[in-house]
Design goal:
Shape: rod-shaped
Order of helices and strands: HEEEE
Number of helices: 1
Number of strands: 4
Helix content: 40-55%
Structural class: alpha+beta
Strand order of the largest sheet: 1-2
Number of domains: 1
């Protein structure tokens, strides 16, 4: 059996808990950001009437349901 003083054991335990907590927090925020970017890519705003609509088809040109004008899908850089 390995003998470890209680102070070193507590340091290792708290370090592991803090690391695990940070890893879970970082992963959750990263996934949330990815979902937000994907959902923004589906929303298009018409250049003429300003109507915002969802287009899950991912076509480069989409027709506005309000005024009928063709709109280009904006290029998102993922910022």
């Amino acid at each position: 059996m390995i003998r470890v003083p209680i102070s070193e054991f507590l340091e290792i335990y708290l370090g592991a808990v803090l690391f695990w907590t940070f890893a879970v927090w970082f992963t959750a925020n990263w996934m949330k950001r990815r979902r937000e970017i994907r959902s923004r890519q589906l929303v298009i705003e018409c250049n003429i009437c300003g109507h915002a609509f969802r287009d899950p088809a991912q076509n480069s040109l989409t027709r506005c349901p309000s005024c009928g004008r063709l709109n280009e899908r904006p290029a998102y850089s993922g910022l």
